[in-house]
Request: fold
Amino acid sequence: MVIQMDAENAVFLHEDAFVKRTAYAPPPLSNLQNKESIEIRNTDENLDDESTVSSSSLHLQNETVKELHLYLHIGPGKMATTTIQDSLMVDEKPLNEDGYCVYDPKVMRNHIGPMIQKGKIDVVQRDKKWNELRSFLDRCHSLNQNALLSSEFLGLVEPRMWNEVMKPVFSQWKLHIVVGYRRYYEWVPSVHFQIHRANLRQFSNGKSKDRRIPSIHEFVSKDERPLILYTENYLRHWKSLVGDDFAFLIYNLDESQNVMKTVYCKMLHDTKNACRKYMKDPFGIQNVGHTLEYDRLVMEAYDNKLIGDRRNLHKAAAKLKTIHEQEMTITKMEFPKICMDDRELANLLNITIRMEETLVPDWFSSENGEAAIQQGFMTFEKAKLCGVDVTKVVKGEQYANMWMTLRESLK
Reply:
């Protein structure tokens, strides 16, 4: 069953509130323990039978289950989280037939997750939707059903929040933490966009004093957040919360882009009906990021007094893109760029290799692993790791007409 509720829009904070309160140390790259086997349990052969499990037979089967499972999907962001949440919303019927209840992913993503992330225990305990979730889980357990929850805001839950608020609610279940894996060098540009996508709008509206967006080059080389927000650190954090009973599952986006087939056919227990759907009907990955380069340019232009009104900056970025790409018929890639040097690229590749060996060792040791990383990195579009040299574009004489045209369009 899926509880439907209205949900307010929320900014994807990427755990910034927690990160600011936490001293960072590079995570140890040792193999995590208690990873569960995810061999395919629902194969093509045993899915040929089109029959489904009736409600009565499901009830009888569940009466004999000794242990019920709660699967908590915690992201990380930019690893098919939107795809999974959207799929959970539309898969109510087959999941219910398989013995699962799903709490509304939109409420988890937009309300409960961000609220828990802020770490205010008294606020959570009084919250109406949190208490609705508690009641929902109690009812789910009384019906002998497994449970599915998803929110990318729960990767770095504070210990007190876990021990005093979440653990008492989840303790009646066998808890499984579900996380995604994506090669680090491919993921970093996406998370850079996700973290900084709201910077320009917030500065334009006077909600932030931060006048610049770092280039992807700076973000990869100098910012601690990519490692803090990556899969390995989420798992390490949750292991510290849960202790010896820690169990986790990883869906590997490099192994298959049909993420729901992986989740339903390989990871969850007895999800024959949900699996059958995605053997035939793959659900495309959602929420693809875009560029921040025009945002970076107009913020630099504002600092150099080429744009006078900060309230126009968000509008200016869209207009600059149009002027540059449509009227001048050139793209952002033709601006002068600052890219990672050989040392920085080598470090990025080494992090990627070490992370894959730690998180998905079987995949890493296969023909699709280390050699494929090396080859993939050689052919990777390195331009994604470059940023426009905003100082040269703002101050260069060859771009004076572009800025004049932009100012005229904003009048």
Notes: The chain has a mean pLDDT of 83. Residues 293-409 form one domain. The first helix runs from residue 16 to 20.
